[in-house]
Protein backbone atom coordinates (compact mmCIF):
# COMPACT_ATOMS: atom_id res chain seq x y z
CA UNK A 1 0.00 0.00 0.00
CA UNK A 2 1.40 3.37 -1.02
CA UNK A 3 0.82 6.41 1.10
CA UNK A 4 0.30 9.47 -1.01
CA UNK A 5 1.14 12.84 0.41
CA UNK A 6 -1.64 15.40 0.27
CA UNK A 7 -1.52 17.80 -2.68
CA UNK A 8 0.06 21.19 -2.17
CA UNK A 9 -2.39 23.82 -1.03
CA UNK A 10 -2.45 26.85 -3.31
CA UNK A 11 -3.86 29.77 -1.33
CA UNK A 12 -4.80 32.38 -3.92
CA UNK A 13 -5.88 35.21 -1.66
CA UNK A 14 -5.70 36.36 1.93
CA UNK A 15 -7.92 39.32 2.71
CA UNK A 16 -9.46 40.87 5.80
CA UNK A 17 -12.03 43.57 6.36
CA UNK A 18 -11.22 46.17 8.97
CA UNK A 19 -13.45 48.86 10.43
CA UNK A 20 -11.91 52.32 10.18
CA UNK A 21 -12.20 54.00 13.61
CA UNK A 22 -14.29 57.16 13.54
CA UNK A 23 -11.35 59.59 14.06
CA UNK A 24 -9.51 58.11 11.04
CA UNK A 25 -12.42 58.17 8.57
CA UNK A 26 -12.41 60.49 5.58
CA UNK A 27 -14.62 61.39 2.63
CA UNK A 28 -14.06 60.98 -1.08
CA UNK A 29 -16.20 61.43 -4.18
CA UNK A 30 -17.06 59.28 -7.15
CA UNK A 31 -19.49 60.28 -9.95
CA UNK A 32 -20.67 63.33 -7.99
CA UNK A 33 -21.50 61.23 -4.90
CA UNK A 34 -19.61 61.89 -1.68
CA UNK A 35 -18.77 58.81 0.43
CA UNK A 36 -17.59 58.45 4.01
CA UNK A 37 -15.02 55.66 4.10
CA UNK A 38 -15.68 53.22 6.94
CA UNK A 39 -14.03 49.92 5.97
CA UNK A 40 -10.68 48.77 4.67
CA UNK A 41 -10.18 45.60 2.66
CA UNK A 42 -6.57 44.57 3.29
CA UNK A 43 -4.92 41.93 1.08
CA UNK A 44 -1.67 40.06 1.54
CA UNK A 45 0.14 40.09 -1.79
CA UNK A 46 2.19 37.08 -3.00
CA UNK A 47 5.43 38.93 -2.21
CA UNK A 48 4.38 39.54 1.41
CA UNK A 49 3.46 43.22 1.06
CA UNK A 50 0.03 44.54 2.04
CA UNK A 51 -2.43 46.33 -0.24
CA UNK A 52 -5.62 48.07 0.83
CA UNK A 53 -8.74 49.65 -0.63
CA UNK A 54 -11.34 51.67 1.28
CA UNK A 55 -15.11 51.29 1.06
CA UNK A 56 -17.95 53.27 2.57
CA UNK A 57 -21.42 54.67 2.20
CA UNK A 58 -22.82 57.83 0.64
CA UNK A 59 -22.76 60.79 3.02
CA UNK A 60 -26.31 61.72 1.93
CA UNK A 61 -27.56 58.23 2.83
CA UNK A 62 -29.43 55.78 0.68
CA UNK A 63 -28.04 52.88 -1.28
CA UNK A 64 -24.57 53.24 -2.66
CA UNK A 65 -22.61 51.25 -5.17
CA UNK A 66 -19.87 48.96 -3.87
CA UNK A 67 -17.11 51.32 -4.92
CA UNK A 68 -13.47 51.15 -3.86
CA UNK A 69 -11.30 54.14 -3.04
CA UNK A 70 -7.57 54.62 -2.72
CA UNK A 71 -6.27 54.75 0.85
CA UNK A 72 -4.47 58.06 1.46
CA UNK A 73 -0.81 57.87 2.46
CA UNK A 74 -1.45 58.89 6.06
CA UNK A 75 0.85 57.32 8.69
CA UNK A 76 -2.05 56.58 11.03
CA UNK A 77 -3.84 54.61 8.29
CA UNK A 78 -0.65 52.70 7.45
CA UNK A 79 -0.36 51.86 11.15
CA UNK A 80 -4.00 50.69 11.26
CA UNK A 81 -3.38 48.42 8.26
CA UNK A 82 -0.23 46.94 9.82
CA UNK A 83 -1.91 46.37 13.19
CA UNK A 84 -4.92 44.77 11.50
CA UNK A 85 -2.70 42.39 9.54
CA UNK A 86 -0.80 41.48 12.70
CA UNK A 87 -4.07 40.84 14.56
CA UNK A 88 -5.45 38.76 11.69
CA UNK A 89 -2.26 36.65 11.74
CA UNK A 90 -2.82 35.98 15.45
CA UNK A 91 -6.44 34.99 14.87
CA UNK A 92 -5.56 32.69 11.94
CA UNK A 93 -2.75 31.07 13.90
CA UNK A 94 -5.13 30.32 16.78
CA UNK A 95 -7.88 28.78 14.64
CA UNK A 96 -9.58 25.72 16.14
CA UNK A 97 -10.17 23.78 12.96
CA UNK A 98 -13.12 23.24 10.67
CA UNK A 99 -16.26 21.54 11.95
H-E string:
EEEEEH
Instruction: Name the assembly state.
Output: single chain
Number of domains: 1
Please bin the fraction of helical residues: 10-25%
Terminal Cα separation, in Å? 30 Å
Explain the layout of strands and helices:
Blueprint: E1 15-19, E2 27-30, E3 33-44, E4 50-58, E5 69-70, H1 75-93
Antiparallel strand pairs: 1-3, 2-3, 3-4, 4-5
Short description:
With 99 residues, the chain is α+β, with helices and mostly antiparallel strands. It has one helix and five strands; from the N terminus they run E-E-E-E-E-H. The protein has one helix at 75-93; strands spanning 15-19, 27-30, 33-44, 50-58, 69-70.
Describe the structure.
With 99 residues, this protein is of the alpha+beta class. The chain has one domain (15-93). Helices cover 19% and strands 32% of the residues. It is built from one helix and five strands; from the N terminus they run βββββα. A hairpin with a 2-residue loop joins strand 2 and strand 3 (33-44). The longest helix has 19 residues, at 75-93.
Primary descriptors:
19% helix, 99 residues, 5 strands
